[in-house]
Amino acid sequence: MKHHEPDERPVAxxxxxxxxxxxxxxxxxxxxxxxxxxxxxxxxxxxxxxREVPRLWERHLLNCAVVADAFPSGVRLVDVGSxxxxxxxxLAIARPDLEVHLVEPMLRRTTWLExxxxxxxxxxxxxxxxxAEDLAGTLSAPFVTARAVARxxxxxxxxxxxxxxxxxxxxxxxxxxxxxxxxxxxxxxxLGLTRAAVVEHGGDLLDEPVxxxxxxxxxxxxxxxxxxxxxxxxxxxARRPS
Length: 242
Fold this sequence. Notes:
- The chain is an alpha/beta fold.
- The chain has a domain at 70-216: Rossmann fold (3-Layer(aba) Sandwich), CATH 3.40.50.
- 30% of the residues lie in helices and 20% in strands.
- It has 8 helices and 7 strands; from the N terminus they run ααααβαβαββαβαββ.
- It has helices at 20-24, 28-39, 41-44, 56-65, 88-94, 107-119, 152-159, 177-190, and strands at 76-80, 99-104, 125-129, 141-147, 163-173, 195-201, 210-216.
- The protein has a 7-stranded mixed beta sheet with strand order 3-2-1-4-5-7-6, sandwiched between helices.
- Strand 4, helix 7 and strand 5 (163-173) form a beta-alpha-beta unit.
- The protein is globular, with a radius of gyration of 18 Å.
- The protein starts with 19 loop residues before the first helix and ends in a 26-residue tail after the last strand.
- 43% of the residues are buried.
């Protein structure tokens, strides 16, 4: 049996904060169970640090759940570099209408994710072991998302092959979102991601709103005009660009 150092011993997950019910609704119990898994095997498997447990809800679960407004009803999305299921598992809990595909290259993590999906009976979730670039041609979706995986330019190179026509990459970023977008704009343009916006989520719930950089292809030209076939943004719930 593996022995853990004292600061690696699992501790109980904190109780769900008041705002959690508004995000998870009647699936709050599932979110609570996921928090308990993260605090237990999520720590012992090295998916999150033990010091993250006291702030599991504010820093991780709510942080991911507020991004659910980025996706219209019933769409398919790919979570690249899913790791501890953030944001993919959280989105699947908050939005059972979504078809969620978790992409993770490490066997240890995919095995853990498969166990979580089975334990929570998340029938809308599929786990894929592999790198995003290796799954191009076999997996695609109108939406791809990622949280703290890589800088925008590198992340976009990995994710563009998974985007369907008119697709959108929703990259979860911190305070540096605008700066990173400005710095990587040329590289993104070369990939065809000329539609870009920094969008704020959860400003009415979180102390610090979550920022996403939403990237998409240029709109298609009006019918009847010549030129290469363009790409058009899908309709999404109205959100507040920052």
